[in-house]
Amino acid sequence: MTKVLLVDDSAVMRKIIQRNIKETGLIVDEFVEAGDGNQALDKVNANGDLDLILLDWNMPNMSGIEFVKTLRSLNLSKRIPVVMVTTEGSDAKVSEAKDSGADGYLTKPFTGDQLRDTLGDYLLVQ
């Protein structure tokens, strides 16, 4: 059973990402949602069986970068892949995200093909 945590301060964007994942044929059995990094940490602690985290950069309370740094500092029994899904598309931001522990990067707006290509390393396709 594949479980994905969507972290974005926009509920609409979380729904768009869910819909796009389903339309591309990627298999996700359950989506867990969080509106910022603090909520995401709570969700990680409550859902230890997460398979992937999709993470926005710019959020209130705790940004995506702060979240991924905090997540990587925890001694979790399983390393959860993190893919940044954000409007921040400069080379410097991509490098910062990867240096902070992100595994992948997808810039908004994205196409279904870009989504499938990026997430295909982490999710199965029907």
TrEMBL record:
The superkingdom of the source organism is Bacteria
Among the Pfam families in the record, one is Response_reg
* Residues the record lists as 4-aspartylphosphate modifications: 56
Q: GO BP, one example?
A: phosphorelay signal transduction system
Record carries keyword Phosphoprotein: yes
Domain Response regulatory as annotated: residue spans:
3-123
Cite the entry's keywords alphabetically: Phosphoprotein
Instruction: Name it.
Output: CheY-like receiver protein
UniProt source species: Candidatus Scalindua japonica
